[in-house]
Structure formats: C-alpha cells, structure tokens
Design goal:
Keywords: Membrane, Signal, Transmembrane, Transmembrane helix. Pfam families: At5g19230. The protein is of the alpha+beta class. A 4-stranded mixed sheet has the order 1-3-4-2, with helices on both faces. Strand 3 and strand 4 form a beta hairpin. Helix 1 runs parallel beside helix 5 and helix 1 runs antiparallel to helix 7. The longest helix has 41 residues. The radius of gyration is 20 Å and the shape is elongated. About 7% of the residues have low confidence. Bound molecules: 2-acetamido-2-deoxy-beta-D-glucopyranose (5 copies). One 2-acetamido-2-deoxy-beta-D-glucopyranose binds next to loops.
Length: 201
C-alpha cells in the first residue's frame, strides 16, 4: 500500500507528463492539417497524393528550429524573391543530423512559410496561391513530403522518387524517425506507469 506522499508525487509526475505532451500534440495537428490541405490541392490538380518522408520531416524540423526566431517580413517565407533565399551556412550539418547529404536531396525542394500564429488557412494559401510555391506543388516529379512547424514558421520539403531527391539514406541507419513520435511514446510510457501505480493503491 503506497503512502499518501508517494501517491501525491506519482499523480504530480503524471500531470506534468500529460501537460508537457500537449504542445507536441498541437504541433502535430498543424502539420497534419497542412499535409491534408496540400494533398487536397494535389487532388484538385488530378495529381497523386504525397506520402510522408521521415527524413524530409527530420530536415524540416531542423530548419524550423533555425527559422523560428526570425520575424515574418515581406521577404521571408513565401515572399522570398527566387534566388535570394539566405543560404544557411550550417546546412550540411543539418543534413548530416538527418542522415542525408547533398547527393540524395538536391532534386527536392524546400519551402519555408512565415505566417503570424500559423493561421491554418493562410499557411495553406501561402503554399497554394503564392508566387513561387504552387508551381512545385503542381509538379508530378514530387512524390513525398516532410512538414514541420515552429512558432510562426512552417517548413515543407518535397521529395522525388529518384535517388537524387528521395531523401533516403542508402545505409540501414534509418534512424531519422520524427522525434515527436519518440517523445509521445515516452509520455505514453509514463502515463501507463502512472496508471499502474495508481491502480496499485
Ligand atoms: C481532373 O480530372 C477530371 C476527370 O478526369 C476532369 O474532369 C478535370 O477537368 C481534371 N482537372 C484538372 C485540373 O485537370
Ligand atoms: C518590403 O517592405 C518595405 C517596407 O515596408 C518596402 O520598402 C519594400 O519595397 C518591400 N519589399 C517587397 C519585395 O515588397
Ligand atoms: C501569406 O501569409 C501572409 C501572412 O504572413 C498573408 O498576409 C498573405 O496574404 C499570405 N499569402 C497568400 C498568397 O496566401
Ligand atoms: C499545373 O500544371 C499543368 C501542367 O503543367 C498546367 O496545365 C496547369 O495549368 C497547372 N495548374 C496550376 C494551378 O498551376
Ligand atoms: C551521400 O549519401 C549516399 C547514400 O548514403 C552515398 O552513396 C553518397 O556517396 C553520399 N554522397 C556524399 C557527397 O557524401
């Protein structure tokens, strides 16, 4: 029989983990909405749906981390003037973190969007109605997609089914699974552990 303080500690641990799982869930929702919105757009153009690419999602996550503290301006995100995208000096490092390199990513396309509070309808229209991005979304060569959102930023990466844009590491170290999934299992584990101890009481 657990004593009262122990029970208190366990329920607080449980509560903290449930609460810390919430922002991740909100973020996943934004990403799923955008994923579905983009595939609806593809369907309206009679194009095949894009399938999720975990390595592209990994890279999108690293890029979103980098962009998140930049404010939206009329030259960021979908307003970028083609050819003037700031070249990230640490891009090769980010690729490496996702087990990628320039050889298997060069035919893909990276599309950052900056929308205050990531209003879902504006985020989607920045992809489907801006000057530069619809052309890529309307391209049959793209078959895969990776999405990440952070603060006001959304990053969408389109991948091809060729080796040059497939975002697929050749080796078996396909360890670039989305960290959110790991975090979620982690929370779930503690949730189950918590319920277990609760049941013991
Ligand atoms: C998509 O296909 C349908 C039926 O085949 C056709 O009616 C429609 O015009 C097509 N739309 C586009 C955008 O190509
Ligand atoms: C961006 O905004 C600034 C000031 O608000 C303006 O001077 C500039 O011309 C704008 N640039 C573009 C590309 O619209
Ligand atoms: C893109 O998002 C901005 C907000 O950052 C909004 O003002 C603009 O209208 C959007 N553009 C399109 C084409 O939806
Ligand atoms: C999509 O691409 C097709 C073929 O290149 C073109 O006919 C069509 O006008 C494009 N649609 C949009 C909305 O860009
Ligand atoms: C990139 O990765 C692929 C697959 O892992 C490998 O075959 C290729 O040699 C690498 N290229 C460079 C430039 O590192």
């Amino acid at each position: 029989m657990a004593t009262l303080p122990l029970r208190l500690i366990l329920s607080s641990v449980l509560l903290v983990f449930i609460l810390s799982a919430l922002p991740a869930a909100r973020c996943d929702n934004e990403e799923d909405n955008l994923f579905q919105g983009i595939n609806k757009y593809r369907a309206s153009l009679n194009l095949t749906a894009l399938t999720k690419n975990d390595n592209a999602e990994c890279l999108a996550g690293k890029l979103a981390d980098q962009f998140q503290d930049q404010p939206c301006t009329n030259t960021t995100g979908a307003n970028t003037i083609p050819g003037t995208e700031n070249q990230l000096p640490n891009f090769p490092t980010l690729l490496e973190k996702c087990h990628l390199n320039v050889t298997n990513t060069r035919d893909g396309t990276i599309m950052p969007v900056c929308v205050p509070n990531l209003v879902p309808s504006l985020v989607l229209s920045n992809y489907t109605q801006s000057a530069i991005y619809p052309k890529s979304l309307n391209d049959t060569k793209y078959t895969g997609i990776g999405i990440s959102t952070e603060k006001d930023w959304a990053i969408v990466i389109l991948t091809t089914s060729t080796p040059e844009g497939g975002y697929a590491p050749a080796s078996s170290d396909n360890a670039a699974s989305p960290s959110s999934r790991i975090t979620f299992s982690f929370h779930l584990f503690f949730l189950l552990l918590g319920s277990f101890f609760y049941a013991l009481n």
